[in-house]
Amino acid sequence: MTAVDQPEIELPDAAASAPPREKAMTIGAVTKALEQEFPDISISKIRYLEDQKLLTPRRTPGGYRLYTPSDVARLRTILRLQRDEFLPLRVIRQELAAGRASEPAAVAAAADGRRAARRPSVSVSERGPLYSLEDVLEETRADPALVRELEEYGVIKGENRAGVKYYDETEREIVRAVTELARYGVGGRNLRVFRTSADREAALLQQILAPALRSRNPQRRKEALEALENLAAVTSHLKHLLLVRDLRGIVG
């Protein structure tokens, strides 16, 4: 076959072969798209997750946030890990860094497996690192007056070391959560009901596991600590379910 007889090869148009650009959504549109699966989703919650460096939407020249489908998928994963596994944000950040956000099926399967194993979301045996008041205020953006109010009502206690007040990781997250509630007018005095409820639940779990927790057998004590963490996760989930039930009665 001569060069004249050779069929022409049609090269694909560059613009046509380029992958379509992902359509971006505003933060309001994202909230509306996810509210059926996550009824408690809000613009302020999404902004909070961005403040925690879990989301990085692009910004328009005017400062508006724009979320790609990938951003929305990542947000959905974060919300599922919070709702279904009660994972703290630092653990979720580690999960995302491991690449789980790009594998929705793997995330769901892993979540189901961990729920079956009742993976605890907190450790009752370790307090973790301590944070100064300045660190807590910087990371949570809390009002210093609010922190003082939380101490006054016994919601947090802190620990004095060499004249400096320190808070553990759990207390820091309590401050962060109350800061979010404060946006809706909830103050320290309103949190007595939470503190009273937590005290009663802790007393109940202590009553159930006290003999094993006091055991001199290291293995039995270890098993008791694991059971305590699992029970804490279960009771936390139960409270969530009861709250959702009662709130449905309000809005229904």
TrEMBL record:
<feature type="region of interest" description="Disordered">
    <location>
        <begin position="1"/>
        <end position="22"/>
    </location>
</feature>
<dbReference type="InterPro" id="IPR009061">
    <property type="entry name" value="DNA-bd_dom_put_sf"/>
</dbReference>
<feature type="domain" description="HTH merR-type">
    <location>
        <begin position="40"/>
        <end position="98"/>
    </location>
</feature>
<dbReference type="GO" id="GO:0003700">
    <property type="term" value="F:DNA-binding transcription factor activity"/>
</dbReference>
<dbReference type="GO" id="GO:0003677">
    <property type="term" value="F:DNA binding"/>
</dbReference>
<dbReference type="InterPro" id="IPR000551">
    <property type="entry name" value="MerR-type_HTH_dom"/>
</dbReference>
<dbReference type="InterPro" id="IPR047057">
    <property type="entry name" value="MerR_fam"/>
</dbReference>
<dbReference type="Pfam" id="PF13411">
    <property type="entry name" value="MerR_1"/>
</dbReference>
<keyword id="KW-0238">DNA-binding</keyword>
<protein>
    <submittedName>
        <fullName>HTH-type transcriptional regulator</fullName>
    </submittedName>
</protein>
